[in-house]
Amino acid sequence: MNSATRDTGSPTDWFFEDFAVDQVFHTPGRTITEADIVSFAGWSWDTNPVHTDAVHSASGRFGQPIAHGLLGLSVALGLVSRLGVFERCSIALLGIDGWRFEHPVVVGDTVRCTLRITGTRATSNGKAGILDRELTLTNQDDTVVQRGNIGLTVARRPS
């Protein structure tokens, strides 16, 4: 089964049994704003000038302020949440593996996320399932800005 053969339907429709290896999902886009970066800096306490000082950043490597790497990761997870397919079945994130920040995200970038299921297996007690998921965050130019793997424990379909 892949994203082309099944509509995402409502969040209540999806459980472990509905996912398959190589299944791909594409999220809608979201434009990163200056307010996003300022807000993230405020609540994370990460006020590094590379993110918050336009004058300092203008003479830096990227020529302008860049979004926090973890802001990009957070947006990727939020975009995946908007798919609706994990809303009812999610139990817990298992970890973030091999996450790479490949290209800066800047104000005005519109990012979207592609999620591919790379593995499925039942938990040892069989009461839940584990999805291995590869996430790729790209900008409006299809440049990969971030990527990595995020495992998720999900509920099995009730009998």
Give me the secondary-structure topology.
Layout: E1 24-26, E2 30-31, H1 34-44, H2 49-52, H3 54-58, H4 69-82, E3 90-101, E4 110-122, E5 128-138, E6 144-155
Antiparallel strand pairs: 1-4, 2-4, 3-6, 4-5, 5-6
Compute the separation of the termini in Å. Answer: 22 Å
Number of structurally distinct domains: 1
Flag low-confidence runs.
1-7
Order of helices and strands: EEHHHHEEEE
Describe the main β-sheet briefly: 6 strands, antiparallel
Give the C-level CATH assignment. Answer: Alpha Beta
Helix proportion:
10-25%
The CATH homologous superfamily is called Hotdog Thioesterase
Note the beta-strand portion.
Answer: 25-35%
Going by CATH, the architecture would be: Roll
Arithmetic mean of pLDDT? 93
Identify the overall geometry.
Answer: elongated
What report would you give on this structure?
It is a single chain. With 159 residues, the protein is α+β, with helices and mostly antiparallel strands. The chain has one domain (11-155): Hotdog Thioesterase (Thiol Ester Dehydrase, Chain A, Roll). It is built from 4 helices and 6 strands. It has helices at residues 34-44, 49-52, 54-58, 69-82; strands spanning 24-26, 30-31, 90-101, 110-122, 128-138, 144-155. Strands 1, 2, 3, 4, 5 and 6 form a 6-stranded antiparallel β-sheet that branches. Strand 5 and strand 6 (144-155) form a beta hairpin. The chain is elongated. Residues 1-7 have low confidence and may be disordered.
